Amino acid sequence: GAGVSQSPRYKVAKRGQDVALRCDPISGHVSLFWYQQALGQGPEFLTYFQNEAQLDKSGLPSDRFFAERPEGSVSTLKIQRTQQEDSAVYLCASSPPQGPTDTQYFGPGTRLTVL
Amino acid sequence: AQSVAQPEDQVNVAEGNPLTVKCTYSVSGNPYLFWYVQYPNRGLQFLLKYITGDNLVKGSYGFEAEFNKSQTSFHLKKPSALVSDSALYFCAVRDIAYGNQLVFGAGTILRAKS
Questions:
Q1: Domains, in order of start, for chain B
Q2: Residue A100 — very low, low, confident or very high, per pLDDT cuts 50/70/90?
Q3: CB of B34 within 8 Å of any CB in chain A?
């Protein structure tokens, strides 16, 4: 079946612009995660949804970052007033509703470059 | 707090030789451990996981990993490397005491040459 998809795959923004990154999880997956992967580093957790509820946003680096999943499927990560330090690959992952032993399945990521 | 260490930035191996990519972890409770592989310009691809039970876990593409509780390690292994195994490998841990997110190591580049 179809995996996790993300769009756009690449985004170039001028500093100060707002961006919106989209994630389409695997159909039927209840849990959805966003991670940020800086160059040469491992992914770092940003936020977690179970259905439409955002249960954990402890990893969001500032109030410029906002995520939503209004209907419990597609999710959008929005970054306001982008800064150069926001340049990274943003990864989305989804998992079935089986609890903490779930495997998270990742999308291809969106590479954001802020000039 | 939970953490993962991958002590080697890069591992070089000749095709046909066994490979090992090292991972150690630190958690407060029972660890759930994962290995992912990342190819250039692609997302992370799941290889295998340890939840409970047999310490030797078998996964995709001939990879396996051995959970060692006393050494807090979860090394990734393959008996015979292929050139196509060349990629970036990430070890990750989930400690449910801290939530459902994965905590990743910094990654290890594997280079397999013919």
A1: 3-113 (2.60.40.10)
A2: low
A3: yes
Superfamily of domain A5-114: Immunoglobulins (2.60.40.10)
Digit-coded pLDDT (tens) for A4-13: 999 999 999 9
* B33 Cβ neighbours under 8 A, 6+ residues apart: B23, B25, B49, B50, B65, B67, B74, B91, B92, B93
Q: Are strands B73-78 and B64-68 parallel, antiparallel or unpaired?
A: antiparallel
- Output the six-digit token pair for A71: 């209907």
Question: Taking chain B (114 residues) in consecutive chunks of 10 residues, what is each chunk's mean pLDDT?
Answer: 93 98 92 94 91 92 96 97 97 85 96 96
Most A CBs within 10 Å, among B8, B41, B102, B103, to test the A interface: B102
- In the numeric block, the tokens 């260490």 are attached to B5
The DSSP 8-state label assigned to residue A104 in this structure reads P
pLDDT above 80 for A28: yes
Q: How many CB atoms sit inside 10 A of residue B52's CB?
A: 8
B31 in contact with A, Cβ within 8 Å: no
Are A21 and A37 contacting, i.e. CB atoms less than 8 angstroms apart?
no
Cα–Cα distance measured from residue B114 to residue B112, given in angstroms and rounded to the nearest whole number: 7
Where are the domains positioned within chain A? 5-114
Mean pLDDT computed over A20-27:
97
